[in-house]
Write a structure and sequence with these properties.
mainly alpha
Length: about 475
Amino acid sequence: MELFRSLQITLAEEVLSISGLVLLLVAAWAGDKASRLISILCVAVLTVCALIAAPALCGSAMGPDVTAFAGQYKADAFAAFAKLLIYAGAGVTLIVAPAFFERVRGMRAEFPLLVLFAALGMGIMVSAGDLLALYIGLELNSLASYVLASMLRNDERSAEAGLKYFVLGSLASGILLYGVSLTYGFSGTTSFEGIRLALSHGLSTGATFGLVFVFAGLAFKISAAPFHMWTPDVYEGAPTPVTTFFATAPKVAALSLLMRVSLEAFGAQAAAWQQIVIFAALLSIVIGALGAIGQSNIKRLMAYSSINNVGFMLIGLACANQPGAAAMLVYLAIYVAMSVAGFVAVLMLRDADGQPVEAIADLAGLSKTRPGLAAALAAVMFSLAGIPPLFGFWGKFVVFQAAVQANLLALAAIGIAASVIGAFYYLKVVKVLYFDDAADKVAGRNDVAHTVLLVISSLVISPFGYLLTNWLHVLAGNAAAALFHVA
């Protein structure tokens, strides 16, 4: 009976697993010519999984704190919130990828399957209630991501991105696993609840080292400074649909996992990890802002923007309370919409031969030749900069508000000051789009799917996005409450 209940709770992961294995057989028999059909079926599978996960957002029908397999898996509102964002990011990737890969003759039947298995790993990550489940989910996602980064076999940049990601990712996994082993050794358990209870009486030197190594390993996965070095190279070298994927789904999964580990497993010793999070937040904001200033490639600029935005999100985690966690989730949801809009716009930047246009200088005067695309790209830049009335401003506002309420005034003040530095490189792109002489490089035709996604995501990050604030705050509040075991 207990096994049946566990299988019922983990239905979304079972659907992903079985569908992935069946479609893997289809890919083996039908070959690459079935890749578009497999992509459509994978999007359908992700939609079904989203419908399965969604009810838990408002409190599961099976109870507020539903666990499976002796507490190793949690199906709470927090996991549901993260999974919906993950499935959305993966779905967008599968929609935009076929047109891109077919243009460069690089579409493979295994591409949608790798995205599906990565989504499976991410689902396990955000539902993990145990260090072993955490590591299994993390590695399933990571192994698929390494292959996705090097998907274009005839492109040296893609191969280099995959190799760098693999080497540095393996190092980070080793650091994380060492931290996990130390944490287990000094707490006597791998369960998040058990670790919290064991460390509630004090933090020994060994347990402190375990905490530091776990946070260092997870900092790599979210590309927080000083473990950010892989991000610009991988974002630039990976195929643009894969970069879109990295900027959305795995980012959500890694940040959600960090929140669960921090607030559940190490929640009793918040003072110990707050210092690490504050340091990583400030360093990420500064390095992300300063590193982006000299970039000439739009994808590298978006990579540094990602590092910068992770820093702002970590301000919410540094509050170590429920309002801070809710603010971080609101920011994360808005960031996913901004990333989708940004990278879909980048995908639409093509020359007359269909080749991608990535140099910022080649976007000069885009407002004169492609006004709609230029307007969408400018909206993304203003929103990422946090300039009102665009919706990106609201993400920064709620995070800074949570920091002020948590008496982290210095952190909020430095974050606000650093966001002014970040505005420089975003405005530089807008200046190139609108005020430079037209380079007339972008001339490719737009795909319908790309245009529809760009319109929808641009509307979400526009002032119309504020219509979603009440709904978003309720869902984020429910998710944050689940982390603090508030029914």
